[in-house]
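Lab notebook, page 48
Experiment: co-folding of the full assembly
Goal: obtain a model of how the components sit together before planning crosslinking
Operator: M.T.
Materials (sequences as entered):
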Amino acid sequence: MENLLEVKNLKTSFFSDGKETPAVDGVSFELKKGETLGIVGESGSGKSVTSLSILQLIQKPHGKIVNGEILFKSQNLLELNDKQIRKIRGKHISMIFQEPMTSLNPVFTVGNQIMEVMTLHHGVSMREAKVQAINMLELVGIPSPEKRFMQYPHQLSGGMRQRVMIAMALACNPDLLIADEPTTALDVTIQAQILELMKNLKKQFDTSILLITHDLGVVSEAADNVAVMYLGRIVEYTDVDTFFEEPKHPYSQGLLKSIPSLSNRVERLTPIQGQVPHPSAITQGCRFAGRCEHVHDMCIREEPPLMSISQHQIRCWMYSESWNDRDKEDTAHGREVAAGRESSKVVHH
Amino acid sequence: MNGSVGISQETVTVSSIEKQTWRNNASWKRFKKNKLALFGAFILLFLLFVAAISPLVAPYDPYVSNVNELGGYDVLAPPSSEHLLGTDSLGRDMLSRIIYGGRVSLSVAFVAVMIATVTGIILGVIAGYYGKWVDTLIMRITDVVICFPVLFLAITVATILKPSLFNVMIIIGLVSWTTMTRLVRGEVLKLREMEYIEAAKAMGQRNSIIIFRHILPNILAPIVVQATLQTAEAILTESALSFLGVGVQQPVPSWGNMLNEATSIMVLQFKPWVWAPAGFAILLTILSINFVGDGLRDAMDPKVKN
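Observation: model returned without errors.
Model output:
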């Protein structure tokens, strides 16, 4: 099947005081029609910046897409002018945000705001838009939609508002839905409901979803493929079953180990050591080296490329041929160096 | 909801929603609780009403000197049953001049504030929303205008433009847009980071629509409050300019140029009816406006809960 979205070598940087800080660095992935790709990572890994880059919503004076291509239906979005990209936004690619509490305008009724998208892109009459908007509200599982249509955002609960956001996002039947942590701000029961809703709507509308999250539970629930991001790089990219059965990158392994499990009782969870360094503190070598338990001299010398191994694409020297030739003593040395770097990074904060 | 039951249910819900939703309803309730603000609003409405129908309520023509039974001009006559507030140094009825003067002073203030508010909103929104060098340029110009001493600037401009009713409005508008600009810019900056603005962009909305639909309605409350308070300031500035003789010119009455009579020590000491009513009218109006402004601020502040 043809790719709906192809991101190639995307690099988005933020500039302050003439200094460049890359938030997303050389990210490539693809998304087929009707597929869901989960982008996972800690705060600061660049996952949100990636999604904002696709719609070119990066704050202009500081943030800039430096390099790369974003092919949507074989058309490079980065070559479009403002007017053309506005036609794509909301109509072909729409977005759901993290905070349902603040992503609706408090002074208009929710119905009015859903109608706004419809009249904007489809040029339907107000009367028709109203009928469609009420249908959308019903579709996203809002009870008595005629009543809710006339209510203001503050009269709705968080879950309801997120449903309204989904209704707005799907109002124009987009090909791609970018969901930036859609369930993070909701409580767990509502999370499950919203995920279920998104899965059903995805089937119904045949929409592709780019699911940005830090919650691996959400990924296992909803995604077909997973891309793990760390410090602006994709470190592991695979399908969801392989990812959970056999994570390869030490970072992915660490993420999975730090989730409490119902079946295996353990006294303590194993967290990943240290914290994500600031992007400005990136040096040559593997970006995860400072926190990696398998760190080796070569990890610090040079950054591994994204390598394809069976189902995985992975950025780690452990899966290269040269890993077997490594010197044992070097490992200890490497860890020392890495630890030194880590502490200096903390000072940077 | 379906069938015949649905219709009746729907009408019930509609009315109950309208009752509880209208945000201003809550604001109005809060405003009502503030007795001073309510009093101010009442006085202000009364003054506006009198100003609007002044030809009907004024007992005399404010431009004509009155002649007494001896055939001379009735100059500086103390209050009597004939002239309730006496007459001025040219024998014109004070009450009529106060009423007509209110008309002039209030309209000068309102037009000036309108000019200042519109200018302030336009510049503030542009500076706050577009940022970068546009922001820097607008804010530096604002800083420069703030640095001018208002009265001296107004006097200078008035001398160049020749004092007239229309020019007074423009002058006051030109020196008072800065506060509004700063206020609007700050509010826009705060709002620009809100997720619903980002959502509107992600929806493919144009900047102009985002400004008019998503930003302006959300900063209306501080704008209204600021404009109200600025009206009081504009009345004061008008009075000051007219008092100094560069504002509204005789024979057109304004509260400010009526105070001008008090420059004569004789009038100031022995004929208080010539200047006191005008001063009192200014005092009352400004006090009322400030009460209303404070009341509005408290009532429309979304952070205040009932």
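Interpretation: Residues 94-130 of chain B form the longest helix (37 residues).
Next step: discuss with group before ordering constructs.
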